[in-house]
């Protein structure tokens, strides 16, 4: 059993683990990354990148079809083989050699194998050959192991061998028909993609689509999916059975069949086999952290990304990693820690300023607190809605543009606390809303942020006009 020592050990070499390792190395600390699968993690190979590559071709095609002049030039269907080949290029054909080169160039050490904590600041790594190495940390161990799909309790589901998002995003042979259980982000994005791939899609969403977003977001996405031929079932399956011909799905009142079935009903912490018991923490739970990502009741263990359950989004995990990497360096060197709200060593934006884009058609872009949640929190809110299709830039972007915008305003503070945009090409509107919320820009000052004409961003002026002059 070999033994080695670094300043920081990072368990999990996904995008989040890579970022925290890079920040620590830039701060002068020695770092080792431990990864049991592909360096680059879920986002690079099975989530963000391949899923958006699957979706993008269809979005581009329909954008062209919505503009008179180019619509007449579009005469063919999506080339599925070319689409899948393009998807493969973004995953480097599931080869992490490029990511490994980056790790080496950044001055970060890499160990392959399964990592388990073995007491404070100590990690045991078992590689594929069964060889064991003990790693010791001078200052910190970081858990960046991410999350796994959560399987609902449905009779026969496990035996039916359902797809997880990994199988859906790495598909080689497109199923003729495709059932999806779950109406959240993964469910609606994969419904969008598989309709483009030519599958007949049935989406099971007992409580509707995109719960947690403004109601109109799920309504507009459901309308668009149905218009493209998807069946949306507002009931949960009670039984699933794999047969020689595919999958049988039953609800309390109906039966359905599909070639394949995808489970998209949430995530669970990937912490069941990383040795949490050796440091007195519950096995399999999400790791609770403070705003510097330090696990509660420890002074050396950090948890970053999905595994802390604050915001299961790659960009938020990387944001947490930047803050945590810097604070680990500061603590290691005995330097001051800037942990006040919006300080450089904290992830304050996790509390009420999280941006998210759902890559459906129409897109859903949101940030901050949704109107219902703001009211539950006791905020005196003003809700301002505007039809994006009434904006000149939107009508130029697409004929018969359909979309909706909403601002959630704190009347007392006169600042925006939430914003949602639904429509074609609205993702790029989101960062302006994020800046307004994070910066707590007063409504009166926003009147002087003049949107260019004619662009979709002119919706900001129309929303402010609906708010009224301060």
From TrEMBL:
Give the binding site residues for FAD: 52, 145-147, 306
Query: Which SUPFAM superfamilies does this UniProt record tie to the protein?
Result: FAD/NAD(P)-binding domain, FAD/NAD-linked reductases, dimerisation (C-terminal) domain
Q: Is Hydrolase set as a keyword in this record?
A: no
GO biological process terms held by the UniProt record? 2-oxoglutarate metabolic process
Source species of the chain:
Rhodoglobus vestalii
GO MF terms listed in the record are:
dihydrolipoyl dehydrogenase (NADH) activity; flavin adenine dinucleotide binding
Q: Which residues bind NAD(+)?
A: 182-189, 266
Q: Which cysteines are joined by disulfide bonds?
A: 43-48
Q: For the Pyridine nucleotide-disulphide oxidoreductase dimerisation domain, which residue ranges apply? A: 354-460
**What protein family is recorded?**
Belongs to the class-I pyridine nucleotide-disulfide oxidoreductase family.
Keywords, ordered alphabetically: FAD, Flavoprotein, NAD, Nucleotide-binding
Q: Which PANTHER family does UniProt cross-reference here?
A: DIHYDROLIPOYL DEHYDROGENASE, MITOCHONDRIAL (PTHR22912:SF151), DISULFIDE OXIDOREDUCTASE (PTHR22912)
Report the superkingdom from the record: Bacteria
FAD/NAD(P)-binding domain residues: 7-315
Which protein, by its recorded name, is this?
Answer: Dihydrolipoamide dehydrogenase
Q: Do you know which InterPro entries this protein is assigned to?
A: Class-I_Pyr_Nuc-Dis_Oxidored, FAD/NAD-bd_sf, FAD/NAD-binding_dom, FAD/NAD-linked_Rdtase_dimer_sf, Pyr_nuc-diS_OxRdtase, Pyr_nucl-diS_OxRdtase_dimer
Comment on bound cofactor: Binds 1 FAD per subunit.
Cofactor(s) the protein requires to work: FAD
Which Pfam families does this entry report, sorted A to Z?
Answer: Pyr_redox_2, Pyr_redox_dim
């Amino acid at each position: 059993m070999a033994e080695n020592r670094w300043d920081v050990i990072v368990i999990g070499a996904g995008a989040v683990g890579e970022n925290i390792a890079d920040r620590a190395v830039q701060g002068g600390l020695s770092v080792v990354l431990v990864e049991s699968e592909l360096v680059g993690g879920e986002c690079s190979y099975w989530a963000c990148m391949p899923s958006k590559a699957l979706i993008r071709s269809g979005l581009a095609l329909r954008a062209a079809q919505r503009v008179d002049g180019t619509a007449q030039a579009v005469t063919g269907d999506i080339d599925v083989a070319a689409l899948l080949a393009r998807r493969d290029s973004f995953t480097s054909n599931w080869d992490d050699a490029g990511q490994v080169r980056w790790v080496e160039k950044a001055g970060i050490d890499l160990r392959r194998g399964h990592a388990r904590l073995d007491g404070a600041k100590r990690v045991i790594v078992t590689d594929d050959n069964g060889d064991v190495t003990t790693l010791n940390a001078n200052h910190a161990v970081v858990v960046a192991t991410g999350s796994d799909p959560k399987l609902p309790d449905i009779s026969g589901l496990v035996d039916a061998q359902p797809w997880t998002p990994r199988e859906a995003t790495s598909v080689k042979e497109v199923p003729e028909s495709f059932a999806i259980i779950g109406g959240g982000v993964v469910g609606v994005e994969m419904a969008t993609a598989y309709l483009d791939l030519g599958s007949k899609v049935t989406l099971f969403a007992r409580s509707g689509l995109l719960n947690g977003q403004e109601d109109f977001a799920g309504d507009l996405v459901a309308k668009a999916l149905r218009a493209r031929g998807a069946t949306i079932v507002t009931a949960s399956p009670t039984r699933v059975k794999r047969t020689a011909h595919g999958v049988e799905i039953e609800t309390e009142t109906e039966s359905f069949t599909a070639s394949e079935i995808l489970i998209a009903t949430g995530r669970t912490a990937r912490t069941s086999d990383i040795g949490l018991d050796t440091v007195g923490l519950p096995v399999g739970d999400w790791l609770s952290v403070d705003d510097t990502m330090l696990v509660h009741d420890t002074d050396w263990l950090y948890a970053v990304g999905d595994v802390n359950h604050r915001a299961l989004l790659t960009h938020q995990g990387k944001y947490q990693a930047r803050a945590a990497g810097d604070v680990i360096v500061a603590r290691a060197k005995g330097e001051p820690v800037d942990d006040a709200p919006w300080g450089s060593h904290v992830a304050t934006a996790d509390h009420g300023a999280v941006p998210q884009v759902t890559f459906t058609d129409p897109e859903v872009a949101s940030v901050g607190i949704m109107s219902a949640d703001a009211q539950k929190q006791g905020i005196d809110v003003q809700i301002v809605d505007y039809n994006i299709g009434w904006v000149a830039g939107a009508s130029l972007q697409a004929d018969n543009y359909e979309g909706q915008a909403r601002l959630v305003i704190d009347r007392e503070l006169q600042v925006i606390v939430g914003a949602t945009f639904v429509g074609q090409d609205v993702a790029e509107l989101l960062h302006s809303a994020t800046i307004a919320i994070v910066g707590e820009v007063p409504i009166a000052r926003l009147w002087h942020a003049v949107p260019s004409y004619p662009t979709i961003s002119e919706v900001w002026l129309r929303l402010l006009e609906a708010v009224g002059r301060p």
